[in-house]
Write a structure and sequence with these properties.
The structure is a single chain. Among the domains are: about 40 residues; about 120 residues, Immunoglobulin-like (Sandwich). About 20% of the residues lie in helices and about 25% in strands. It contains 3 helices and 10 strands; from the N terminus they run αααββββββββββ. The longest helix is centred in the N-terminal third of the chain and has 29 residues. The radius of gyration is 48 Å and the shape is elongated. It starts with 18 loop residues before the first helix and ends with a strand. The relative contact order is 0.14.
């Protein structure tokens, strides 16, 4: 026997509806959208720089820049690089820088003014290119070549009961150059004399002299030339 379900069977019906017929059923959009208010966050206020400080800082930078430019220009001019740059820019060969042709005279002869109160303490002094094992000059020389190392030798006889230091003051072209000192104090010794030496070298041509002092008391002066 066939079993037939009783009642009405459920059905699904699909129907296409035009969009225009549905739009009036949708809720209307608000004219003014909602505005979300964010509470202000605290920020540290930016400091206001006074106008005079801004001007001062600008002037400082400007002055430093001018000084740097001036220094660089002076160095380039003095070293000859400026002429090289100009010649390179103009496409011309660089002319050689003239050598120092200044005439260096012979050292003057010693006179009485070249000895001082301490000459009896430093009685002997000489310039030389070679010395022996006792720090004595092989031969006195007063004219040297640029870059040549030479010696200042001298004998010291400290007074009885005294001690002191010897200082040599070097001068080039009439201007003070540098001091040199014996590294230790010298004391009186009746049986011996201190023979001491110092070395010096000059890269350029010049006229010069060296002065010897005992405890800052002038002893004697020696002249020399580098050429």
């Amino acid at each position: 026997m066939d079993l037939q379900p009783g009642g009405r069977q459920p059905t699904i019906s699909l129907q296409l509806v035009p969009q225009q017929a549905v739009e009036h059923l949708l809720p209307a959009e608000p004219l003014n959208p909602d505005v979300v208010h964010v509470p202000p966050m605290f920020t540290k206020p930016r400091p206001i720089v006074p106008k005079h400080r801004v001007i001062s800082g600008f002037l400082s930078v400007l002055i430093v820049g001018l000084l740097l430019c001036s220094g660089a220009g002076y160095y380039a001019k003095a070293s000859g690089n400026w002429d090289k740059l100009v010649a390179f820019y103009n496409g011309k060969p660089v002319s050689s820088i003239p050598a120092n042709n200044q005439t260096i005279p012979d050292p003057p002869q010693l006179t009485a003014k070249d000895s001082g109160p301490a000459v009896n303490i430093i009685p002997a002094a000489s310039l030389a290119t070679h010395i022996d094992k006792n720090n004595l000059p092989v031969q006195s020389v007063t004219v040297f070549s640029p870059g040549q190392t030479f010696y200042l030798t001298f004998s010291v006889q400290p007074p009885k009961g005294q001690e002191g230091t010897v200082t040599a003051k070097w001068y080039t072209n009439g201007k003070f150059y540098t001091p040199q000192s014996v590294p230790k104090k010298l004391t009186y010794n009746a049986a011996s004399v201190y023979n001491t030496q110092m070395t010096m070298q000059f890269p350029n041509r010049l006229s010069g002299y060296v002065e010897l002092y005992w405890n800052n008391q002038f002893a004697q002066r020696l002249y020399f030339a580098v050429r």
